[in-house]
Design goal:
The protein contains four helices and eleven strands; from the N terminus they run H-E-H-E-E-H-E-E-H-E-E-E-E-E-E. By secondary structure, the protein is an alpha+beta fold. The radius of gyration is 16 Å and the shape is globular.
């Protein structure tokens, strides 16, 4: 069974999936080398909200991002892998996922992102995000490095049911409107690719 098919089945069963050693090692290493070599100025502060409600709030999130353009071979390989996942999810779950957007995320030491949902229930068709992916690019990550992703079962939950270490080549996939989540502050630079499969606008 392919990894993409396994992910689709887990999404159908429980709404999320966590996969270690998700992509071929050469792709993972190439992405790591690429993102850590990017100049600091290409990473931009991330805000909250969209359109007229967009604002920067350093008390809520302190990550910076650089959108994938598909120009670098490492990005091309990653996006091709995600295209295979899109096709497999549509085949098995009939979700009608149309495209994928993603950015490199850099959390400098002490940076964080407080609890949030990627898409609020009832608004899925408005901002189009249906399925969230988080892919980690952090070799030799240790428990004391922090930076875990906390996932909550629903909006009423006060205790996280998953505490996910952002270790190299780990992929997390979940329904965008189902699972509130947050990123705890890390003690070293933390890199990932955050992405969203969307419906057709």
């Amino acid at each position: 069974m392919s990894i993409q098919k396994n992910i689709a089945q887990h999404i159908a069963q429980q709404g999320y999936c966590i996969v270690d050693d998700a992509l071929p090692a050469d792709i993972s290493e190439s992405l790591h080398q690429y993102v850590t070599a990017l100049p600091e100025h290409v990473f931009k502060d991330m805000g909250i909200g969209r359109g007229d409600s967009f604002r920067l709030d350093k008390s809520y999130r302190r990550d910076k991002s650089c959108w994938l353009t598909g120009e670098h071979p490492a990005e091309q390989a990653y996006l091709a892998w995600m295209e295979d996942l899109r096709l497999e999810v549509n085949k098995q779950l009939f979700m009608g996922l149309f495209d994928y957007e993603a950015h490199f995320a850099h959390y400098a030491p002490k940076s964080f992102y407080k609890r949030h949902l990627d898409t609020f229930k009832g608004q899925a068709n408005r901002n189009n995000r249906q399925l969230t992916t988080v892919y980690y690019l952090n070799p030799n990550w240790q428990a004391e490095d922090g930076g875990e992703l906390l996932m909550y079962a629903d909006e009423k939950s006060t205790e996280a049911f998953k505490r996910i270490t952002p270790k190299m080549n780990r992929l997390v996939v979940f329904l965008s409107d189902e699972f509130p989540h947050e990123v705890l502050a890390a003690n070293r630079d933390r890199y990932s690719i955050a992405g969203w499969f969307r419906l057709k606008a």
